[in-house]
Amino acid sequence: MKVLVVDDSSLFRRIITEALKPLPGIETIDQAPNGRLALLKVAELQPDLLTLDMEMPEMDGIAVLDALKKLPNPPVVIVVSTLTHKGGHLAIKAMQHGAFDFITKPTTASPEQSLEALRAELAPRLKSLSVRFNVRSILHAQQRTSGRAAPPPASARASTPGSGPSTPQSATQGATPRGSTPDTASSQAANQAPSRPARLAPPEMLLIGVSTGGPNALDCLIPALPATLGVPVFIVQHMPPLFTKSLAEHLAEKSALKVCEAVHETVAEAGTVYIAPGGHHMRLAHGANGQTIIQITDAAPENHCRPSVDYLFRSAANHFPGRAMAIILTGMGSDGTLGLRLLKRHGCFVIAQDEATCVVYGMPKIAVEAGVVDSVLPLDAIAERAVAAIKGRHR
Q1: Beta bridge partners of 226
Q2: Where do the domains of the chain lie?
Q3: 337-362, pLDDT tens digit by residue?
Q4: Where is the CheB-type methylesterase domain positioned along the sequence (predicted)?
């Protein structure tokens, strides 16, 4: 994998380069101090991957992304953003302009700590990308030997969510204070929880779990939900602090539903979308008069994530059995599957995004393989199916 590191800070160019060097699959690493020189090096070196700073002189990150989209075979871009509200806004915008994912610049005291923090963020993303690059190499080899283009396998198709139609598939088969320890007994029970037929009663809440590729996926899904949805929506998107607020603001501008970053001890209201704040878990609990209370906690990360999809799903299964439906969208790893096992014990209806429209077919894939998904759909078909289930028209 050939990498081009683009940042106007010589310190961060060096740290990112050192973080990348020992990672598997890295062949060469070059650097550029601004967007204009980056585009010249892209033409010369044909890198597979760019790490891209957003705020640079001469040409900023958004301008670079727009220029890359015009190339016949552009490199994959991982944005390296500052951990600020402005950085969050730019990262969300970068995803809309074609970035694969983003990471944040460390705020640690020493370059050595920053290096390790960046390496921990980059390693799983490069592992995911290596599959794509291996597929691309195979396709190029096939084209050279056959003299014509070979159709790509599903794992290499449609890296942009909602970029094309695909055929729907049937899948195989109380209040806790901030800082509390998750219910480990429920986590263990989830490993043996059998799937049961989907409950027929309409759900009273919609749960969504998403990671890599999530901003664009949510940008397609949430605005497609009508103002008359009639239930609250709870989202866990793997994001750092400050970025989830930017995501909520962006979705609120284009959605019929109210969208906000969730606040501790809020009473959930129908027709509102609540996004777990970055760096914190979100769980659901019973309040007075049958109300649903949102709790934000600082419990330990799960699946290396905080917020965690499993944490939200488990709370709904424990406190609101049989009253939720769930959607698992694009993302790396397996976060969400254990929680879905618990939800399925009470008849939760589960939709997973299909492989062709996922940026990374990880979280949905694991859930499908675990037998806890009822319907596998392309991204642009999920909202209609979810609304139908909530309105009780069909499951």
Answers
A1: none
A2: 2-156, 169-390
A3: 999 999 999 999 999 999 999 999 99
A4: 199-393
d(CA 161, CA 35): 26
Whether residue 181 is predicted with pLDDT greater than 70 in this model: the reply is no
Count, in order, helices (H) and strands (E) of the chain.
12, 16
CA distances from 262 to 86, 127, 258, 265, 333 (A): 20, 32, 12, 9, 24
Write out the two tokens for 184: 């480990």
Q: Annotated active-site positions, please?
A: 211, 238, 335
Sheet strand arrangement including 349-353:
169-170, 375-377, 349-353, 324-328, 205-210, 233-237, 272-275, 258-261
Q: What is the value of pTM for the model shown? A: 0.82
Residue 195, C-beta contacts closer than 8 angstroms, at least 6 positions apart:
173, 341, 344, 371, 372
Architecture per CATH, domain 169-390, reads as 3-Layer(aba) Sandwich (3.40)
Residue 188's SS3 state is helix
| CATH superfamily of the domain spanning 2-156 | Response regulator (3.40.50.2300)
Do the Cβ atoms of 60 and 35 come closer than 8 Å?
yes
